[in-house]
């Protein structure tokens, strides 16, 4: 095992240990209190709901790209993590819309579940591209199970009156860190590998817009940060579409099997 792989394994084990050993972290009580609660056309929280159409478009575009053969893969099986990623984005359109119609923990479950599916698909895709095709594909199923389990665990603790969102939060942070780590330490077999940084850029922008939800609305008087967060996060999906259709194999790049 190389030192780089050993480091990733160590980070993984540390994250798992933290999820079990750190004190429980309850869901913030004001989490569902979004800045823009205006309704329109009979739809509550109108802009936070309809902005999820961006996820719908990104998910459909991605599935068309992958299933039509326009995406470029050295091996056909490499498409599976990307299919999971775009299915997750497509389901996020439905789950997030459902959540914003009536924000509460029960509806939030259906928002977080598909987002976790998309995240795990993305992590698997980068293991395939940068470390090992066989390993990345083999880990796709277990990662999906772990990701979904973190969301199920969270809602189960909420229903039991002792909410603990920590495992879910740690998993999201872990996924982002591992993706960045692979981007820095492991070159891709494909060109356009730097597009991953644009994907991160849209993700960071989305988190900032979420953080400054009310401030954005207060200054724009039109749209909230959370509404724009949906658009920024969906933009990352369109970047992936562009990357998959324009990349090529790096000449003489070794195929990690």
- Give the helix/strand class: mainly alpha
Helix content: over 70%
The share of residues in extended strands comes to under 5%
Q: N- to C-terminal separation?
A: 14 Å
How many runs of DSSP E, i.e. beta strands? 0
> If you average the pLDDT, what whole number results?
92
Radius of gyration: 19 Å
Total of helices: 10
Instruction: Describe the global form.
Output: globular
Uncertain segments are none
**Biggest sheet statistics:** none
Order of helices and strands: HHHHHHHHHH
Please supply descriptive tags for the structure shown above.
mainly alpha
Please specify the SSE layout and strand pairing.
Blueprint: H1 3-21, H2 46-50, H3 53-67, H4 79-101, H5 105-130, H6 133-159, H7 166-185, H8 195-211, H9 213-220, H10 225-246
Helix pairs in contact: 1-7, 3-4, 3-10, 4-5, 5-6, 5-7, 6-7, 8-10
What does this structure look like?
- With 257 residues, this protein is an all-alpha fold.
- It has a domain at 3-23 and 49-186.
- The chain is 71% helix and 0% strand.
- The chain is built from ten helices and no strands.
- It has helices at residues 3-21, 46-50, 53-67, 79-101, 105-130, 133-159, 166-185, 195-211, 213-220, 225-246.
- Helix 3 packs antiparallel against helix 4 and helix 6 runs antiparallel to helix 7 (166-185).
- The model has no long low-confidence stretch (mean pLDDT 92).
